[in-house]
Amino acid sequence: MENRIEKIKKQLHSQSYKLTPQREATVRVLLEHEEDHLSAEDVYLLVKEKSPEIGLATVYRTLELLSELKVVDKINFGDGVSRYDLRKEGAEHFHHHLVCVECGSVQEIEEDLLGDVEETIESQWEFQVKDHRLTFHGICKQCQNNGNE
């Protein structure tokens, strides 16, 4: 984890920002719960357990800054709640998600499935793609198996 924090610190410094103790506390929570797709409120409650002096507004500002700097990706799975997902180290693009409409589980797809689509968009529409995200909504294997019983 310390290695990732050091890399994030360098990423912030390269954009003239510092990794303040409040920002570091937020980043640590995101790293500790990397698979959980936390909302800002979730992050705040977890930060508050370790650093009660950090306020909700500080956590919101930190998450927005980290989103702007592409340290985290701000995502919405159609439930009206923004969630924050650490961008994988070295990832050129946002990763994709499978969202179960039955149980709400979220699976991540690390493989970039849209390389050919990007090339088509760039050549046919002369549109320079900077990033993309893909979310599939459906029924996970577990819920399918439960429905068959």
From TrEMBL:
Signal peptide: none annotated. GO terms for biological process: negative regulation of DNA-templated transcription; regulation of secondary metabolite biosynthetic process. Keywords: DNA-binding, Iron, Metal-binding, Repressor, Transcription, Transcription regulation, Zinc. Coiled coil: none annotated. One of its GO terms (molecular function) is transcription cis-regulatory region binding. Fe cation binds at residue 132. Binds 1 Mn(2+) or Fe(2+) ion per subunit. Binds 1 zinc ion per subunit. Its cofactor is Mn(2+); Fe(2+); Zn(2+). The keyword Metal-binding applies. Transmembrane segments: none annotated. Zn(2+) binds at residues 100, 103, 140, 143. It holds the Pfam family FUR. Belongs to the Fur family. This is Transcriptional regulator. It comes from Aquisalibacillus elongatus.
